[in-house]
Amino acid sequence: METAPKRTAQALSAVLITRDAEEHLERVLQPLSVCDEIVVLDSGSRDRTRQIAAAYGARWFEHPFEGYGPQKRRAVALAANDWVFSIDADEVLDAEAAAALCAVSWAREDPAVCWRINRRPFVGRREIHHTHWVPDRVVRIFNRGRHDFSDAAVHESVVPTGAVREMPGSLLHYSYRDLSEVFRMDYHHLKSLSYRAAGRRASGPELAVRAVWRFLHSYIVRLGVLDGRAGVVIALAGSVNAVMGLALAGEREGRRQR
Questions:
Q1: What's the per-residue H, E or C state across the chain?
Q2: For 160-178, what is each residue's pLDDT tens digit?
Q3: Domain around 23
């Protein structure tokens, strides 16, 4: 692994949420030595997550998982500094991005500005270059006095209130060990709760149209065909993701009315 740039006092906190995150955690934490502190908010890990975090000097907190948005908002609030870099436990900061973080004097930055960074998706060791996953630029560096995560239970994001700048480098995103893991039922159930709360529903024909369009958009329009078998599976997963939450919301409503 490449050596991270020398740490400087920048008043920048790295924050992440974890649960049984030992698989990638060491690679995630090592480049974060460029930050002034690392904050880990855990929701019941039973593997070596806590030991790995301790080895990198992380401040450790625990709280039951209440959805991705609420959990990340809580982690941000635990940071010692207002400038925050939010990173997931399956994302690895590359050398260019780590150097870029070092080059910024955060105390002099405008708190109204936040930064986004390119995220490069992988399935196992294979990088995905097309499909609806690419490009993926996410806002992750911000001043919590002016910005915060949405409270969405899934597909949460930072809500900018000012200008957004581009941070050089990338986050290498290792969410899936193989193609079978691309289908995330936990996400679908969380989305169904959000849809129910918002009163969103869809008929069978509407779901069918959404599913077909999402597949074609990922596989044809976004050139998933160039990613081979992975492109097919990712397009299918996108299709399922477009309809499953809505379908589950309708199913649960039907059960309640019986």
A1: CCCCCCCCCCCEEEEEEECCCHHHHHHHHHHHHHCCEEEEEECCCCCCHHHHHHHCCCEEEECCCCCHHHHHHHHHHHCCCCEEEECCCCEEECHHHHHHHHHCCHHHCCCCCEEEEEEEEEECCEECCCCCCCCCEEEEEEECCCCEECCCCCCCCEECCCCEEEEEEEEEEEEECCHHHHCCHHHHHHHHHHHHHHCCCCCHHHHHHHHHHHHHHHHHHCCHHHHHHHHHHHHHHHHHHHHHHHHHHHHHHHHHHC
A2: 999 999 999 999 999 899 9
A3: 12-176
